[in-house]
Amino acid sequence: MSAQHPQSTHASIWVRFFPFLLWLKGYGSRDFRSDGLAGRTVIIALVSFAETYSVGKAISNKRKQKVDIDQEFIGQGLANLIGSFFHCYPVSGSFSRSAINFAVGAKTGISSIISSRFVILSLLFLTPLFTNIPKAALAALVINAVLLLFTPKEVFALLKKNRHDGIVAVTVFIMALVIKPDYALLLGVMMSLIFFLWKTMHPSVRITKDPELNMFVNGDLTNKPDWPQILQLRIDSEIYFGNAQFFAEHILERLEESSSSVKYLLLDFQAVNFIDITGIDELRVLMEDIKSRGVQPAFINITPPVEKVFISSGLMNDIDPTLIFDGKGKATKQLFSHLDQEYCRNTCPNTLFQECIALK
Questions:
Q1: 212 versus 12: which is more confidently predicted?
Q2: What is the pTM (predicted TM-score) of this model?
Q3: What is the DSSP string of 279-343?
Q4: What is the share, in percent, of the chain residues with pLDDT greater than 70?
Q5: What integer pLDDT is reported at residue 161 of this predicted model?
Q6: How far is it, in rounded angstroms, from Cα 144 to Cα 148?
Q7: What are the chain's domains?
Q8: How confident is the model at residue 106 (pLDDT cuts 50, 70, 90)?
């Protein structure tokens, strides 16, 4: 899906949910607690989002086309908006009808217009002829069409490429055989959200320098040693209320696991483009805790959006301006002059930087 302007995205979300707000308003004189309409409405909206996106992506991938999800949501939102004035059922993407259209080679929306006319004519004049058709025959027709969109090889490939996505795909498939497909799809959305939150709760990786390659690498992945007096961590996710506390606890755990001779904690914010007020509060407490341990916090590659929040929240005033750097090389060169030179010369077992070579 191509990137959309934020206003376009907000507009599509508003148009999508507005019909459901109208639907709720229509029941304003009734008790939501007794009827449970509010909860059901939210479920319908979420399932509609997921179902529309899923079937759209499945067919677009088969035809090697790009799908504009915002446009899909706007179209269905307008359909719900108009239908709400006539007490219509909520409109959403249909797996079965979309699969049948795809199976017969339909290319444009004209196919839906033609098929809807045939449905109306059938309801008016041909209903007696369809009365005795077994439901199993109708089910077989739908299953045969949906099988064209079923690619089990991609599911197994997904398990190898991305374990979390593969688990979600397999779970949704199995649950769709046991419960209603809509509920299975909603379960998949919830699982994806849980996996996303789990990933954001482990946001940092250790960065060190490989003297053989003369470049900075992922110390956790390559199992390379780091500078005993400088612990450098790269933050790989946004910092918000959902993971702010885990972020702070994780940083402290990494600090406790490192050498006791650490003098600087160098945090790389290059991949962080958003931080909310909860993240700011946790970061402020984290800095105070780090300083109480005799370690100075330093920052590199702070992105403009995060820097703006740092300034507006007053956190920038709590950071030593001499400990803010634009790059890893500048940071290590500047911090090296403040390290324990005797420790580097006589005790440190690693020779990672040019400064180390010159000193030893």
A1: 212
A2: 0.59
A3: HHHHHHHHHHHHHHTT-EEEEE---HHHHHHHHHHTGGGGS-GGGEESSHHHHHHHHHTTS-HHH
A4: 75
A5: 79
A6: 7
A7: 1-93 (no CATH), 151-200 (no CATH), 203-359 (3.30.750.24)
A8: confident
In whole angstroms, give the CA distance from residue 263 to residue 295. 5
CA-to-CA distance for 219 and 31, rounded, in angstroms? 58
Beta pairing, strands 204-210 & 215-218: antiparallel
Q: Which residues pair with 234 in a beta bridge?
A: 205, 268
Pairing, β 230-235 against β 204-210: antiparallel
Chain center to CA of 122: 45
Rounded distance between C-alpha atoms, residue 270 and residue 357, angstroms: 28
**Of 266, 278, 355, 357, the residue nearest 319 (C-alpha):** 266
Question: The dihedral of CA 81, 84, 85, 86: what is its sign?
Answer: positive
Sheet of 264-268: strand order equals 215-218, 204-210, 230-235, 264-268, 296-300, 324-325
Buried b (16+ CB within 10 A) or exposed e, 261-291: ebbbbbbbbeebeebbeebbbbbbebbeebe
Q: Is the pLDDT of residue 281 over 90?
A: yes
Which band of pLDDT confidence, cut at 50, 70 and 90, is reported for residue 220? low
Q: What's residue 221's pLDDT?
A: 67
